[in-house]
Design brief:
Blueprint lengths: L10 H17 L5 H31 L13 H32 L2 E4 L6 H15 L4 E4 L15 E8 L6 H4 L4 E7 L7 E7 L2 E6 H7 L1 H4 L5 E13 L13 H12 L4 E7 L4 H11 L6 E5 L38 H7 L2 E5 L5 H12 L3 E8 L7 H11 L3 E6 L7 H14 L2 E3 L6 E2 L3 E8 L2 E9 L11 E8 L2 H15 L11 E2 L4 H17 L5 E6 L5 H13 L2 E6 L16 E6 L4 E2 L3 E4 L6 E5 L5 H5 L1 E2 L1 E4 L3 H15 L5 E3 L18 H13 L8
């Protein structure tokens, strides 16, 4: 077992610990049963992405003949690959056990998941009809025995590995001796729901997984073979998802990204997962044909893979088995029916989704698109919804004669193809596109408009911690500041100028912009807290973010801790800092919250000798955010908004239901104390509901 470095937790292991917290949600009896299944899907999807990105990176380091100790927190790449595989095998085993327990509890609620051997005659007739009409036309089946080359498997797909033992008699035994076994692959169709809902019987709900529909109808798939036995076990592979962008000067940036995304389909496999009950001869056949060696990450799993599909587990109309839906609240003082720009001109407002409705962003863009006085709209985009109203607003603005400038990040991981499609569509509409800064991803979430008022240009805008995506806004918690503060917006305009004039480094008095200023800015703020602590003054730092991996920032917080600065950290995901170690981090406490919504905001609070300073940002304390991306952080000057951010931070910090404690043991222990139970996400919704007063609906 890899031991924790005396100063840092290994990034990859910390990531797996985070996914373990997601798996804890699957076990939590306070989480509704169908939601627990959906968390299992999130766990699986996270694991897929981990292997595509992080495991693939470590493997590249190892295959390059390097130890990787300098970038892997002191661990050797070879040892880390072995440790990750062991870790994941145990997590997979646990997830299978958890799934079985959930299925047993679902049966107590009259929800039954059947396999192909458990169908009644009537259900069997339904399944065959469903197979013939819906599944068979989309089935991709390959006989493997006589192929010169093994087919290229997709890393987004799951396959049934089929073994048929053919019948033979004495006259044909010699002829068919070598062909007695036939192997085939069936790709599970992606265009069909993975969970097939069978006809309800009384109060009983029945579901069969698509894989078992295919297993039930194997005789229809292989009628040409006279077999005496047939078996089908699931396998899947995960491929390296790193983009290798070529330097061909004759290609446009879009062409390079598209080519790189296409190359992903044939990149090296980094993980092979198989049903642990598969026959040894079938497994050996597959590993031999696929060139899989013992050094690769070979993971025995359960009967079903691609458990990410559980994120879409059918509701069955059983609201009692799901979280109660909340009605997103209005922002106090900001009416969606009037002019947003008029209200924002008077003061700043804070939108905190999903507690607040995302409609304010759409309303802002729609109003800007129609207002004759608005001349320009500038916005950055990292991830858009599949059917994006944000994109529609920008298209509408162009049709109304506005000059629209869009910085779209084509390298947003796993959203490259969607962003290419939007880029091409919006460019055709007349939107001016900017494709980022060479060598840097643009991860900032900013928008600014220019409006002509009394023969002068007046700016309005918003700065966010999350993507302008109405789909994820329902489940991601994120802050968005709406402001007409001219000094801030003047500097926001400088950021857009930088996208077009990348050699010119601007200076900022208000905004905190990566890659040039974010790290140095926060280091200075921490130094000030250190100085105040040494002078005997009150000194504290409170931070909430997604991940914390920058050794430089960790070391600075260790220094602050040793100086007596009280530090509170809320980190959802990876955290390489070790809190609570005497002589190093004894004044640092750190927790992680995993609950109904995905905690996504970044907020930074500094005591500043009693004159509290508060910031929001798109940047985590990760090397990539501080040095290799364009990020924008913003100071909060409006006292009401500042207090709101402090209040919501404190609610999160006081969570003692869904908060896990970071410690040297990395055991993901839930925080336990004698205070009244406080579940921060529920309490945050109540906080905003109370702000609005009585007669506000609490659920749909």
């Amino acid at each position: 077992m890899i031991k924790t470095n005396y100063k840092y937790i290994n990034r990859e292991i910390s990531w797996l610990r985070f996914n373990e917290r997601v798996l804890q949600e699957c076990e939590d009896e306070n989480v509704p049963l169908i939601e627990r299944l959906r968390f299992l899907g999130i766990f699986s999807n996270n694991l897929d992405e981990f292997f595509k990105v992080r495991y693939a990176t470590v493997k590249r380091i190892f295959e390059a003949g390097k130890s990787g100790k300098s970038v892997l927190g002191g661990e050797k790449a070879k040892d880390l690959l072995v440790e990750i595989t062991k870790f994941v095998i145990e997590q997979q085993r646990k997830s299978v056990e958890i799934l079985k327990n959930i299925e047993n509890e679902l049966e107590e609620q009259d929800v039954f998941l059947l396999n192909e051997n458990e169908l009644s005659e009537k259900q069997g007739e339904f399944v065959r009809k469903y197979f013939n009409q819906m599944v068979s036309p989309q089935l991709m089946t390959i006989i493997l025995n006589d192929l010169a080359e093994f087919p290229m498997l997709k890393d987004t797909a799951a396959y049934l590995a089929v073994k048929m033992v053919l019948k033979s008699d004495d006259r044909t035994k010699r002829t068919y001796e070598k062909k007695e076994k036939r192997y085939a692959l069936i790709e599970i169709p992606k265009g069909i729901d993975r969970f097939v809902v069978l006809p309800k019987e009384g109060n009983k709900n029945y579901i069969i997984i698509l894989d078992d529909v295919i297993r039930y109808c194997m005789d229809s798939v292989f009628p040409m073979f006279d077999y005496k036995s047939i078996s089908a076990h699931m396998i899947k592979i995960t491929r390296d998802a790193e983009l290798d962008i070529d330097n061909d000067l004759s290609k446009s940036f879009i062409e390079k990204i598209y080519s790189s995304v296409e190359h992903r389909k044939i990149s090296d496999p980094v993980r092979f997962v198989y049903d642990k009950n598969i026959e040894s001869d079938t497994l050996d056949f597959l590993k031999d044909k696929m060139g899989i060696e013992d050094a690769d990450s070979v993971i025995p799993g359960g009967r079903y893979h691609n458990k990410r599909d559980y994120m879409g587990f059918p509701s069955l109309g059983r609201q009692d088995l799901m979280y109660e839906k909340i009605t997103p609240l209005p922002v106090k003082g900001l009416n969606l029916e009037g002019s947003l720009l008029e209200k924002i001109a008077e003061k700043d407002y804070l939108q905190y989704t999903p507690y607040h409705t995302f409609s304010y962003i759409l309303k802002f863009l729609r109003e800007a698109a129609l207002d004759p006085k608005v001349k320009t709209i500038k916005i950055t985009v990292y991830r858009l919804a599949n059917d994006s109203q944000v994109a529609a607003c920008l298209s509408n603005a162009v049709k109304n004669g506005k000059q629209v400038t869009l910085q779209i990040e084509l390298r947003a991981r796993f959203d490259e193809q969607a962003n290419i499609r939007y880029a091409e569509e919006l460019q055709a509409e007349g939107v001016k596109l900017i494709f980022g800064v060479p060598g840097l991803k643009v991860h900032s979430k900013i928008c600014m408009i220019e409006r002509e008022e009394n023969d002068l240009i007046k700016r309005y805008g918003f700065i966010s911690t999350g993507n302008f995506n109405e789909s994820t806004a329902r489940i991601y918690t994120d802050y968005t500041l709406f402001t007409a503060n001219e000094p801030i917006l003047k500097e926001l305009n400088k950021v857009f100028d930088f996208f077009e004039t990348t050699y010119k480094i601007n200076k900022y008095k208000h905004l905190i912009v990566s890659p040039h200023y974010t790290k140095s800015f926060f280091l200075k703020l921490i130094d000030k807290e250190i100085s105040n602590a040494k002078a005997g003054k009150e000194a504290y730092i409170k931070i909430k973010m997604n991940s914390f991996t920058s050794y430089k920032m960790i070391d600075k917080l260790y220094e602050a801790s040793n100086a007596g600065v009280k530090i509170q950290l809320i980190v959802r995901g990876i955290n390489c800092l070790i809190p609570g170690i005497k002589g190093m981090s004894e004044n640092i406490e750190a927790i992680s919250i995993v609950d109904k919504f995905l905690e996504h905001p970044r907020i930074f609070i500094f005591c500043n000798d009693g004159d509290t300073r508060v910031f929001i940002s798109s940047a985590d304390f990760m090397t990539r955010n501080l040095e290799n991306r364009v990020e924008v952080g913003c100071p909060i000057y409006d006292e009401d908004v500042k207090q709101e951010l402090i209040d919501t931070y404190e609610i999160s910090w006081n969570d003692n239901v869904k908060a896990r404690v970071f410690n040297e043991e990395q055991d993901n222990a839930y925080r336990v104390n004698d205070k009244p139970k406080l579940r921060s996400q529920f309490a945050t919704y109540d906080y905003y509901k109370d702000k609005l007063g009585p007669d506000i609906p609490t659920a749909e």
